[in-house]
Amino acid sequence: MSDDLVPDDLWERVAPLLPPRPPRRRRYPGRLPADDRAALRGIVYVLCKGVSWADVPTERIGCSGVTAWRRLRDWTEAGVWPRLHEVLLVELRKAGLLDMGDAAVDASHVRAFKGRLIPDLRRWTAHVRAASTT
């Protein structure tokens, strides 16, 4: 199953986009880091199965769910996912498989003001309100 999660053609697209790993210390190098491809398998596993990070099968995937989560965080901060999206869009355009005429824009999460301008917040400038003159 783990081979199906990250096929070779997907890995060939993702691997060049990953940030370089920092060099290991010479004197106390610590534990060897988990393989990046195994971490990507863990990420895809969580996304496909809808399980929590703790439920990632370490033996089958090749890394723990916590490791996969950390790599997801690090790769997100490094901007891997937008670059991968651009690479995939370029490949689809070259192959003639991307037709923007079929695209739809969903604004269900965008606030609509129904033609009105955005109301400004009004704050009092004094500590207390002025007495009414009527």
UniProtKB/TrEMBL annotation:
<feature type="domain" description="Insertion element IS402-like">
    <location>
        <begin position="7"/>
        <end position="85"/>
    </location>
</feature>
<dbReference type="InterPro" id="IPR025161">
    <property type="entry name" value="IS402-like_dom"/>
</dbReference>
<dbReference type="Pfam" id="PF13340">
    <property type="entry name" value="DUF4096"/>
</dbReference>
<protein>
    <recommendedName>
        <fullName>Insertion element IS402-like domain-containing protein</fullName>
    </recommendedName>
</protein>
<dbReference type="InterPro" id="IPR052909">
    <property type="entry name" value="Transposase_6_like"/>
</dbReference>
